[in-house]
Amino acid sequence: MRTHHITKDGRSIAIKDLTTKHLINIISRIKRLADSGIIVKYRYGGHGSTADEMWYDETIEHLKGEKVLKYYDYDVYANELKYRENNLKN
User: pTM for this one?
Assistant: First the structure.
């Protein structure tokens, strides 16, 4: 489970330390991406006991809807926002 958010400029911020406005913006962006879809490139490889046995491959996949939400850990961000909303009420 994700505990930190990586910003566009590469900074790592604990999700609990994000401003509520930033959290809402992240959630909105993930929802938009889920609607439009994203392209993900998976890279994987391995090796045996010699250099000749090394291998590498790539797979490109188009994700949309629930798969995008899962890819970006949408629930982590949404649960943090719900937690804040519930604690403001109490």
Answer: 0.81
Structure tokens at 51: 């250099």
Q: Which of 6, 9, 71 lies closest to 38, judged by CA? A: 71
Helix (H) or strand (E) holding 44, with range, is strand 38-46
- For every residue of 13-33, DSSP letters joined together read EEGGGS-HHHHHHHHHHHHHH
* Residue span of the structural domain in which 23 resides: 4-89
pLDDT one-digit tens code per residue, 33-48: 999 999 999 998 998 8
Number of domains in the chain: 1
Give me 13's structure tokens. 């911020």
With beta carbons less than 8 A apart as the criterion, state whether 63 and 40 touch: yes
